[in-house]
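Forgive a beginner's question, but might I ask you for the amino acids of a protein and the tokens describing how it folds?
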Amino acid sequence: MALIVRAQNVPKVSGRIMIVFMVSGRRGPMLLPLSGCLVGSGRSWTPPPPGVFKINVDGASSDLEGISNIGVIIRDCKGGTIVALYKPLQTHYSADLVEVLAMEQGVLLAQELQLPHVIFESDAIIVINSINESAVGTLNGHIIQDIIHAQASFIFCSFKHLNRAFNYAAHELAHFARRNGSTHLWKGVNPSF
């Protein structure tokens, strides 16, 4: 777990303000920029700071069609796709459970790639709050607990809520799984749709 020692503002560059934290991690102290955000904008997805990977996840569940799907995309500080995944689940699950399963899949992919510094984002505020508050006594608490334990495999790891409009790529991946009905994984290239 990282300890924030000090924060400093870095001058605005190209409409962005970056806040840098000195953190103490398993491998000693390091400067870790917090996600730069557009000043006065916030109208789109923002890439993570250098050396950090951002994992966006989304789940889709249709009561009418009786199906559930997930989408995961991992991008670098330039917005380049490292991995993208869409996957239909074997049966229909509640919307909350599908969002938790999407986060779990994102964590598993980041672990498989051995990414050291990660930011997970989801538009499911219930999932983000459950992870950040260690709410393991909930219906999906056993999966939340696994996600919380997985944090130890990263040097830096955070879970953040973002507006659905800013989670477009993961959202589209989840919905493409519904339309396509199969699992697909891209490594190092953007999805073909």
Observations:
- The helical segments are 95-112, 125-132, 141-150, 168-180.
- Residues 95-112 form the longest helix (18 residues).
- Residues 44-187 form a domain with the Nucleotidyltransferase; domain 5 fold (CATH 3.30.420.10).
- The chain has one domain: 44-187.
